[in-house]
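Key idea: predict the complex, not the pieces.
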Amino acid sequence: MSITLEQVTKRYQGQPVVNDVSLEVAEGEFFVLLGPSGSGKSTLLRAIAGLVDIQHGGIALHGSDVTHVGVRERGVGFVFQNYALFRHLSIADNIEFALRVRRMKSADRRARRKELLKLVALEGMDDRLPSQLSGGQQQRVAVARALAHKPQVLLLDEPFGALDAKIREELRRTIRVVQRELGITTVLVTHDQEEAFALADRIGVMNLGRLLEVGEPHTLYARPATRFVATFLGAANLLLALQGPDGIRVGSTPVDATGRQAGPAAREHEVVAVLRPEEVELAADRDQLATRYVGRATVEEVQFTGALERLRLRLLDNLAAIQHGADPAEARIEATRTQPEQRALPLRPGDTVVLGARRLHVLPTPLSSFVVHADDDDTARALHADPVLATLAARMKTRVATRAGGDETAPQSAAPGVAVLATGADAPARVGQLLRAGANEVLLLTGRAELPRQLCIYWMDNAARGATLAVAASLLRHLPAEAICVSAAPAARRDARRAAALRALLDARSEARAAHALETRTELLAGEMPQALTDYLASLDTPLLVLGASNAAQATEMLEGILRKLPDVPVLLVYRETP
Amino acid sequence: MIRILLIGIALTFIGGLLFAPLAMVFVSGLEHGLGAWFHSFTDSDTGAAIRLTLLTAAIVVPLNTVFGICAAWCIAKFEFPGKSMLVTLIDLPLAVSPVVSGLIYVLMFGLQGWFGAWLQDHDISIIYAVPGIVLATMFVTFPYVARELIPLMQQMGNDEEEAAITLGAGGWFTFFHVTLPRIRWGLAYGVILCNARAMGEFGAVSVVSGHIRGLTNTMPLHIEILYQEYNYVGAFAVASLLSLLAVVTLIVKTMLEWRTGIRHH
Amino acid sequence: MISLRRERSVIPGFGITLGFTTFFLCAIVLLPLTALVMKGASMDFARFIQVITAPRALASYRLTFGASLTAATINIVFGFIVAWVLVRYRFPGRRFVDAIIDMPFALPTAVSGLALTAVFAGNGWIGQYLEPLGIKVAYTPIGITLALTLIGMPFVVRTVQPALQELPKDVEEAAATLGARPVYIFFRVILPAVLPAVLTGFTLAFARAVGEYGSVTFIAGNIPLHTEITPLLIIIRLEEYDYAAAAALGCVMLAVSFLMLLTINLLQHWGRRRLTGGARA
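Result:
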């Protein structure tokens, strides 16, 4: 492996900006780190170069650990966002800088410089000053300069950010050609998904300091595993679908879908499905649809963009299907159509059409939507305004519904999603009711203003482990928090339970990494549950407890014990009944 | 109309307050011809004053330059607690009266000062001697280079230095080949201002000098003595020499501003 | 969890430059200033008060602060006009005027004192016209004010000038399209925008004037109770070997300096906040 990152963490003033990132980049690979601004991608790149130090984890280049090696000794080539050319030096001196530092003979330097200028197609520019070149040319010089000392790794930090579209495309091609020709391992940071698709062998998508998904461009686009990747890589409609014994349904209509969880399920539950605008089929009536019917819709807006036509549609029935925003009536579906499609069925605002889905991709996330359970309006309002819930709902682009109190015994299928309750003395009892009614996840909120910084993950028995990790991973894609798996065992070193607990923790860590691309820390607490857990939670700064259980009675008992001592810790209970 | 009026007011103000006195110095200095002007400098005390002024500047300016570069480097390139406090303290001498600047050294090294007795026992004189003059001048010109460089280097950022380091350059190499060439005009600007002030300082030096003719009189102090002795020709001759220095400083400064296109304050 | 630990940077030289800076600062600036404060503090309190409230001292404060205030006020009026003319108008000799503004920075104070005295003396270039009008400049408080105006002038011009330059022309044009008259535009649009700069310039000029010695000593005549400024009084006490009295007066001057420095910092902070719109200053 050319670059190996092992659980790299970087914090600024206690806030993680790069959070437990592990990654391997192969020899000669062109890897693109993609993410919105503030996602930690540039910091991660600078950490690879050694320009920032990391608090935790390790970095290896070509098999040798460089975590504590200085920038100069790492010998990487780095291209800065604003070129950072030496403005007082000529192009020749800029390119030869690294060679001069290494005391290379002047004739050799010249030869190498000529070679590099030819590579980036800037022959004859030797004597100019950077200010005499255009932005695109300066960027080429920056690339040539970074390659002069023959680094084994080339790192580029948003190299095309300041350039206009046409030059950008041209430079993209140059960089790709140079990279292929030299076969140099390259990591490029960008926020532009088109750029990532055009350049990358593989893409890593980052958000809130975490590396969410890594994969080849077309795989990531067609089969994203997370909401963020689905919506960040191109436009996407997120739908709430139901998965049951007969497969996937959107509202009342069964549809064809792909994805890891697209098969039939024993118990019906809610899932999140991605519908790309270009996979939306529009027809005049149901008979003309080539694909499965989803619903009727009116055309609200038609936008001509050249090759494609972009439409905004409002669903007339099947409203519950759409997830965007809090109010389903406000939600819209986006669709794009090619020229032939437009000619076959010309559409104008106000027209009514039927809508089908050519391809629906089901996300493996276990968290779909939220349902607030409250006895009175005040409590409901307070819960809706809770910072943790509001942030999660906004970042997950999901719906928060409300159920008035007293009907928790209603069939579960009527209220899918995560049940949300306010913490309080009666919370454990109400959780018990909810679990008996068929709820899978219950979130207990305290009204605390700060978002959790640590996710403490504990499952009461192994049957609940997989689901607990999946829920925690899903949550962590939307919260910049640290993940810590905990278990407890008596302090005595020779106790057999200790070894078993430790093994279970390490198993969980590999499972989280393999199945959910989630890096976790592990903590083996000394003592007995729940005492050890409450003590540990009390020692944390702003924790959220993810508690996994498969026995309702045990779960409520445990909750009661924890809430009595720590009434201000939010808890997400994950319940999976053992068959 | 308003335009003409305002330009008129401005020119009269500048003319009466700035230009007339400056012209006066040269006119009075050359009143008796170039010969008399040159003759004024053959006086041994005047020569000694010029030499002392040059010596003081030769010690003070390099030291304050090194200080200014160091201060600007740590302030512009790093974040650390107490940074803004440090910047304020560096500016402090600008707000202190020159007389107080001299006074503090008298209180340190004068006969009744902190180290006075010890210095006398070891037969070292600082006050009423050259070291005192150097120290007082150093205090007064302390912030000049640092003040020019700090904002300049802050605005330049760390990108080029970081680039140099990723290319394998060490600290000194980076400083001499990347940083120094970029700050050279700002540095030159700070140095000439520092030099002008060092050569022209009156109040602080007046307090610590003791006015011993031929020994501890700098050029500005010498002007005062000549003036009090009604030797106007001599006084204006020395004054015109210092004014020449000021004019050269202004010309260099203006050229630097045109060259860099940056306005300094 | 907030750590005060400095982010480790890849740029070398932090320790040595900070160390040298701090050492040099302490040795040249802080230690001697401490000596002054200690000397003042070691005095008997009653004696300290007696020294700093002696009639001669009080007269010197009145003169020093009075003349400095007057000079700074003259400067904000004329300095503003000069800055305005330099920014807004093009006329022959503009660059020369622009360059000569900095003359008081470069010209030794002794020289400017000497020259001003010569120009404004009864037989001087300008003094000869003022004398018949009954205006005596040299060796009077007017002369002192004049000298302080000279040395403070560039501070006002050089702080107001960039503020006027950065003032977007389209704001005025917008005000004009909304029907505002020039006077209204000046007082409601231009002046509020450059007010922090004007006040900063005023404070800088005032602070510089309060401490000034060199140029004043030539033109003042140095008559006790009449044209004797505080810095001069300090020197006189020193020449009498009354170190304690000199230190006491020095402490007063130093306190004023700190006050001025504080005011300037607050003004600049205010100006920046107004420009950047607050919170993230």
